[in-house]
Write a structure and sequence with these properties.
InterPro entries: P-loop_NTPase, PhoH, PhoH2-like, PIN-like_dom_sf, PIN_dom. Keywords: ATP-binding, Nucleotide-binding. It comes from Methylomonas paludis. GO terms for molecular function: ATP binding. The chain is of the alpha/beta class and 469 residues long. The chain contains 15 helices and 18 strands. It has a six-stranded mixed sheet with strand order 3-4-2-1-5-6. Strand 16, helix 13 and strand 17 form a beta-alpha-beta unit. Helix 8 packs parallel to helix 9, helix 11 packs across helix 12 and helix 13 crosses helix 14.
């Protein structure tokens, strides 16, 4: 086996990297990739099942089969060109080679680390490769933090798999709103046009900051003027702004809900806009994500008749111990996961009547238009004229998010809500979550909107706990 290539690194992949991203073997640009035999054994044990991990493992096996097809043993020993598999323009520069462990390597672990454990076997292989090829920089790639800690203790170069990350720092994620500078009108007001259309005020302006904006981004002034607008279109150095509707008054509420802060007002503007097909709402606990989404959905479904019904779904990841088998229909099985929906429906129903009988009738009427669905049965479906709410979207992978969003048929609006600080899915982080992925990918599309809710409005107790615990 000859892996001495000038300027190339050798990345040894842990099993969890391949389970997480089946295309990971093709994402190391011009560098070489090494897969130990113990990794192939672990993949073989995980290939059965209907989970995303099992599907990913089966896809890895198909990739490896395509790579070694029609090759003899000598060609495999010399390294398989990764360019043998075409994956499209999304993965470029596949100049590296794939190496399998084809012989026993020296056991170099300390006596207190037995090599029978899979992780320790991989560490032993990395040490052996580093000793056998001192001119090559050998790097272990693993999603397992403890594995990287053990590697560091053994003075092995180890890295997390970063290719699945949408952005490097979550603080750089698009927030959906931006404060304008104090001298904004001095730079942009000289060539401004304004007009009224359909009871809304529009501005067309030109200036140096237009290139920094995105469609349906919210702009505001912090000078106390109360100026708040949404970017309706951008054409070169020219942009059209529309003043936002004011939902902060009880006289202009949405299904009895009014905005308590600027970001909630922006969210209601996006949620009630018929030209916006996809809305993402980020925010910590108590910022009103679910309540705003439901109120807007009920208003557009039952008052404006824009949608036939509201569909709500979420990833069923337990916070603590799983409660086990749940009997009943699909909706009955999902009911324990939909406590947030029920709580908000009770609140919205209580605002729909002056007495207990009217409130009960309103709540029954609302529940008839709200359907609860499981993510497990979404593949292959098409939703027509539906208002689809995806709750706890931070626990979805980019692939799962793509599966859900592509279910949308004509007339359907999708709302994704979540809190990136509450990710319960293994191997997902704030920078690799499917929610982060869609926020970044949809920010330039003229029919989508995003807003990050900053202030909690649940209670002073919840606000203090969110800030201090």
């Amino acid at each position: 086996m000859n892996i001495l290539s000038v300027g190339k690194k050798l990345f040894v992949l842990d099993t969890n990297v391949l389970m997480h991203d089946p295309t990971s073997i093709f994402r190391f640009q011009e560098h070489n990739v090494f897969i130990p035999m113990v990794v192939l054994e672990e993949l073989d044990h995980a290939k059965k099942g209907l989970s995303d991990v099992s599907r990913n493992v089966r896809q890895v096996s198909r990739f490896l089969d395509d790579l070694i097809r029609d090759l003899d043993q000598q060609s495999i020993n010399e390294g398989i060109p990764l360019s043998r598999v075409e994956l499209g323009s999304s993965i470029e520069n596949q100049d590296g080679r794939l190496y399998f462990q084809t012989r026993q390597l020296a056991h170099l672990l300390p006596p207190d680390l037995p090599g029978q454990i899979a992780d320790n076997s991989i560490l032993s292989i990395v040490l052996a490769l580093g000793k056998e090829y001192p001119e090559v920089k050998v790097i272990l790639v693993s999603k397992d933090i403890n594995m990287r800690i053990k590697a560091a203790a053994l003075q092995i170069s180890a890295e997390d798999y970063h290719n699945d990350q949408t952005i490097e720092d979550i603080d750089l994620l698009y927030s959906g709103a931006m404060a304008l500078e104090a001298d904004f009108w001095e730079e942009h007001g000289s060539k401004m046009e304004s007009w009224q259309e359909n009871n809304a005020t529009f501005y067309r302006l030109r200036g140096p900051h237009v290139a920094e904006w995105y469609p349906n981004q919210f702009l505001y002034m912090e000078d106390g003027s109360g100026f708040e607008a949404i970017v309706k279109s951008i054409n070169g150095d020219s942009a059209v702004l529309q003043l936002t509707a004011d939902f902060t008054s009880k006289n202009h509420s949405v299904w009895g809900v009014y905005a308590k802060n600027r970001e909630q007002n922006f969210a209601l503007n996006a949620l009630t806009d018929p030209n916006v097909d996809f809305v993402t709402l980020l925010g910590s606990a108590g910022t009103g994500k679910t309540l705003l989404a439901l109120a807007a959905g009920l208003s557009m479904t039952m008052e404006r008749k824009m949608f036939q019904e509201i569909i709500m779904t979420r990833e069923t990841v337990p916070v603590g111990q799983d409660i086990g088998f749940l009997p009943g229909t699909e909706e009955e099985k999902m009911a324990p996961w939909m406590g947030a929906l029920m709580d908000n429906m009770e609140l919205l129903g209580s605002r729909s009547g002056s007495n207990e009988w009217e409130q009960g009738a309103s709540q029954n009427m609302m529940m008839n238009r709200v359907k609860i669905r499981s993510l497990n049965f979404m593949r292959g479906r098409t939703f027509l004229n539906r208002y689809l709410i995806i709750d706890e979207a931070q626990n979805l992978t980019p692939k799962q998010m793509k599966t859900l969003i592509t279910r949308a048929g004509p007339g359907t609006k999708i709302i994704c809500i979540g809190n990136l600080a509450q990710i319960d899915t293994p191997y997902l982080t704030a920078t690799s979550s499917g929610l982060t992925y869609v926020v970044d990918r949809f920010k330039s599309w003229e029919n989508s909107a995003h807003i990050t809710l900053r202030r909690g409005e649940r209670s002073r107790l919840a606000d203090f706990a969110s800030d201090n615990l």
